[in-house]
Amino acid sequence: MTWQLLVRVSSPERKKVGVLDENANKVGEIELPPVFNVPIRADLVRRAFLAAFTARLQPKGRDPLAGKRTTAYSWGVGYGLARVPRNPNGRARFVVSARGGRAAFPPTPDRVLREEINKKEKALALASALAATSNIELVRRRGHVFSANQLPVVLADSVEDSVDSTQKARELLVKLGLWSDVERSRGGTGIRAGKGKMRGRRYVEPKSILFVVSSTEKLLAKAVRNLPGVDVTTPKDLSVLHLAPGGVPGRLTVFTKSALEEIGRRFEVIPL
Predict the structure, then answer these.
(1) 112: which residues sit within 8 A by CB, 6+ positions away?
(2) Which residues pair with 31 in a beta bridge?
(3) Is 40 helix (H, G, I), strand (E, B) or coil?
(4) DSSP code, position 68
(5) Residues 6+ apart with CB under 8 A from 216
(6) CB-based burial of residue 14 (10 Å sphere; 0-12 exposed, 13-18 middle, 19+ buried)?
(7) Could you give the CA distance from residue 133 to residue 153 in angstroms, rounded to a whole number?
(8) 142-154 burial code (b ≥16 CB/10 A, e <16)
(9) Diameter of the chain measured on Cα atoms
(10) pTM (whole model) above 0.70
């Protein structure tokens, strides 16, 4: 799918970044796609994140007949008792105050949880989140720790096949100056407060590096996917949830050359 964006770009000049190999040596240069010149709209990124995040929420509610499946009926007047539904033995049923009765104000499954967003706003938010990955100040402000001189980091396509183990991935990230962010994520991992720890969400883990690769079946994707806080995706599946966790733009991102070119084909920026 191709997104057409009519925006007033900050600069018509396209920034060039180096393409690095598995030893972090520069083997070429590539121009960043025009989408990286799109103005960064933090408000739109926040809205798009909430729309994508709430779309995954499952509405929860009580069974409409819970506490009402009973043969009890009101006896009427003349018994000196409240006129609530009762069993033949006199036990009250159905009402809120009765044992086994209905709930007073149960959660309803028809509650609207999802926040909507327009298609053009969603496309512009995704473009803004992409542009924020090239802004070193924004990435540092988001809390990432790194010593790389250029952002985003672009790797040669050969790295996807040559880095075939987590040990080699660690060595690569050390050479790129990004390993300190993985250590930050590992140090910040802890046990969640509250009952979520009993429901399959025991640990909280800060987000670290995002890898955008041509295919998640390549060796590089399998080598880095288990590192603390690391996410791996493709240009086809890329979303604001990856680029701006929590709705805050500026995630530390590593692209492969082919993935970056694919992103350039998916966004057509028309300057005003």
Answers:
(1) none
(2) 16
(3) coil
(4) T
(5) 232, 233, 234
(6) middle
(7) 9
(8) bbbbbebeebbbb
(9) 95
(10) yes
* Residue 108 pLDDT: 86
What is the rounded CA–CA span in Å between residue 31 and residue 29? Answer: 7
Q: What is the pLDDT of residues 216-243, one digit of tens each?
A: 999 999 999 999 999 999 999 999 999 9
3-state secondary structure of 267: strand
138 touches 151 (CB < 8 A): no
Residue 171: pLDDT band (50, 70, 90) is very high
3-class state of residue 126 by DSSP: helix
pLDDT digits (tens, 9 = 90+) for 55-113: 999 888 888 899 999 999 999 999 999 999 999 999 999 999 999 899 999 988 888 88
User: 147 is written with which tokens?
Assistant: 């010593």
Identify which of 3, 4, 16, 9 has the alpha carbon closest to the alpha carbon of residue 38: 9
CA 7 to chain centre: 25
